[in-house]
Structure formats: C-alpha cells, structure tokens
Design goal:
The chain has a single domain, classed as Spore Coat Polysaccharide Biosynthesis Protein SpsA, Chain A (Alpha-Beta Complex), CATH 3.90.550. Helices cover 28% and strands 24% of the residues.
Length: 191
C-alpha cells in the first residue's frame, strides 16, 4: 500500500556530529538523505526533504525552512505552510533503521480525532517518527510565536497518539561520530 506524503527532516545543525549528517555516505549511497529518500519512495507517493538550503547532489523535492531558526518545529511549520496537504509522515534523516513495519504500524493508527501519531520506544517519545496533521498547525504557530520550539510541548497541547514499540534499536539516532561508525557496521539488510 502506498501512503501520501513523507518528509525527511534534514535541516539540523549536526553540531554533535561535527559535520552535516544528511550528507554523510551511508551504505551504497552517497548520502544518508538519499538513502532515506529511496527507502521512503517505496512506501509514499511523494517524498520531500526539509532543509534550510540547497546542499544535495541528487534529484529530490525540497521544502525550504521559512524561518531563520533551526528546529524541528520550524521544519513542521514550513512543511504545512508550503504544501497543501492534510497530513505528512515525518522522519529524521539520522534514523536509518526505522523500517517499513514501524511506518505501517503508525499508519494504521489514524482516525479523525488525532492530530499527531508518533512512535514511542522504551527510551521515550520519537517525535520525528510519525504523522502530523494540519489540524495542529495553529497550535504549532502559537508555540513558535512564544519562542517554544520543543516538539514535546507541542505534542502535549494537541491530541497525540503514542504508539508503543518494544525496541529502541530502530530509533537509533546518528548524533555522534561513534553512532555513525556503529551504524555503518550494521548490515543494510536489517533496514
């Protein structure tokens, strides 16, 4: 089954990594962003990359941040202020092990009363792995105007469904060089 829209969030500063995570080579791919795009194209009819600037050397559909600050909230605002869509699946560029089963599990949880559906693993909420609906846009804009960029605060203000998963491994973020090196050792057949 194909779903509508997926967005790869790739506009972060990558300060802990020391270089842009989205541009790191991954497996047989020139960049982590391209790897994520090709994976998501198998599940979604449209895949976009949310970014601050044109920094990629492969063909993709981009959504550029409309605000100066760098945060996932800025990305989500920019997505809904750019696209005329009711919902999007968002995935951080630095979570290459979130697989098809997780995404499909999140997709089956939808109903009209829910504004956001996110994954939750034993280590906590995974706000950059889930579906966001336009119904939460006004609250997100208000949070931005207050200077509060914390997605967890936004999630507590809207009707959020948290879908529990028993394993943290698929949600591993590549934040530090050692995380990246460890991820490169994992067989891509597990992705």
């Amino acid at each position: 089954m194909m779903y509508d829209n997926a967005i790869i969030i790739a506009g972060g500063k990558s300060s802990r990594m020391g270089r842009d995570k989205a541009l790191l080579p991954f497996g047989a791919f020139n960049t982590l962003a391209e790897f994520q795009q090709l994976r998501l194209e198998e599940l979604f009819s449209q895949v976009f990359i949310s970014t601050k600037e044109d920094k990629f050397d492969f063909e993709a559909k981009y959504i550029y941040d409309r605000y100066e600050e760098s945060s996932p909230l800025v990305a989500i605002l920019s997505i809904f202020e750019t696209l005329d869509v009711d919902s999007v699946f968002v995935l951080s560029v630095d979570t290459p092990f979130v697989g098809k089963e997780i995404i499909e599990s999140l997709c089956t949880q939808d109903n009209d009363d829910i504004d956001v559906i996110i994954a939750e693993s034993p280590s906590g909420e995974q706000p950059l792995c889930g579906f966001y609906k336009k119904s939460m846009l006004l609250v997100a804009q208000t949070q931005y105007k207050k200077g509060n960029h914390k997605l967890r605060d936004l999630l507590n203000l809207v009707n959020t469904k948290r879908v529990a998963f028993e394993d943290d491994v698929p949600f591993t973020n590549l934040n530090h060089p050692s995380d990246y090196e460890d991820a490169l050792k994992v067989s891509l057949t597990q992705v």
